[in-house]
Design goal:
Blueprint (H helix, E strand, L loop, with lengths): L6 H17 L3 H12 L1 H10 L4 H17 L5 H12 L22
Helix pairs in contact: 1-2, 1-3, 4-5
């Protein structure tokens, strides 16, 4: 269904999958047909909007990995900073340029 080029083709493929699952004799095959039927509108919304929650799920996975590896933080700020470092969301503030040191001119000039 997700490989279909437009909404109508995706709807046909999904409806065939639902009908095939529901017509099967095995209960374990009929169950996904019921699930697909109840989520039909949401599944086809990708073809209508082009939206995907893939980037959100990827960031959630990264946050869970950080939490699992760090064995707990005592301060939330440290946890937040570690998550931002791993996800590339840190924007460091601009450092002020160092003051110019005025030196005396060489007496040999």
């Amino acid at each position: 269904m997700y490989l279909a080029s437009n909404y109508d083709d995706a709807a046909v493929v999904l409806d065939k999958a639902i009908a095939g699952c529901r017509a099967d004799e095995v209960a374990e095959i009929r169950s996904p047909g019921t699930t697909l039927a109840s989520w039909r509108t949401q599944s086809l919304a990708r073809h209508a909007t082009g939206a995907s929650n893939g980037p959100t799920e990827g960031l959630n996975l990264c946050v869970k990995k950080v939490k699992r590896c760090e064995h707990g933080f005592r301060r939330f700020d440290n946890y937040r900073l570690r998550v931002l470092l791993h996800t590339g969301g840190v924007t460091w503030p601009e450092r002020p340029s160092p003051p110019r040191i005025r030196t005396r001119c060489s007496p040999l000039r």
